[in-house]
Amino acid sequence: MLTGFDWLRRAQTGAELLATLRCLATGSDLPVETEIGPPHSALGGPCQRCWVYPRAPLPSGRLSPYCKSCLVILARAEQIGHISRQAVVVWGLVNQLPRQLAGSQGFQDDQVLGFYVPDSHHFLLMMPRYALKPWLQELLLYHGTELKGLLEVFPTTGAGRGINMGDALCRAIHDEARFPPDQLRVRFFSAPHQFLHFRTREQLGQLTFEVSDFVSLLEMAAIFRTLMRPELQQALRQLLSLSDPSEAQFYWGRFLGYLSPEARDMLSAWRIRQWPRPRVDLLYELVEYVAFYETA
Prior knowledge:
Elements: H1 4-9, H2 14-26, H3 68-79, H4 81-84, E1 87-94, H5 99-102, E2 114-119, E3 122-128, H6 132-143, E4 149-155, H7 165-175, E5 184-188, H8 198-203, E6 208-210, H9 211-227, H10 230-240, H11 245-256, H12 261-270, H13 277-286
Parallel strand pairs: 4-5
Antiparallel strand pairs: 1-3, 1-4, 2-3, 5-6
């Protein structure tokens, strides 16, 4: 029999992962499978998704490619694909569960889309991308330095995009033992396929952060997104990629003329022209995970 965590690892897409989380949360949505499907052969076999349970009969009398449970998950996934595409996944290994999970009081619907707690030291969350910063800030507010471990943050993926969601989750579990539990760290993957090339990202300083440092980076990204219009953000990125110093200096002066005084002060205080390229790339990745600040 498959456990709840087994079902999560069979998710191919972010929509399937979210659908599975919501089915597990209710407890009654997934049909109870009591028998194992037949062995795989040229004439038949088990469910083509879970490869364990028998295929469900269709009204036409033929067999579906999937079992009853997989049919429920896939049907739900079709309805929430637009939500999952804007979601981020957090896999946590901690010394104690966050109070929302330990107290079984859950989260607000606009903060967390679904969660699963396999044991007293692990949890899986899906939330809107823009909820990541306030969620981490709340985590620090209530737990401070008492909470230690590792949070692995990565986006959802669609069908046929290389590594699927189940593979990404397994990679996150495999990597969780790389760090001692002396503080709370965040490993940030801007794309699931980066699990396969994490060493390069680690060497560039784009992967692992102390949690307060990561929240500070998200705060910088929020300010950057608020003060810089999208076309100015792209213009700045192209300007920072110029290799000729004299050409860069010429265009920099013209570029500053398009900015508001607040934006000019921000870039000057950050000394962004002295940033290494990986740090610039990380800022632009984090912009996709923060919301605008309200301005008067």
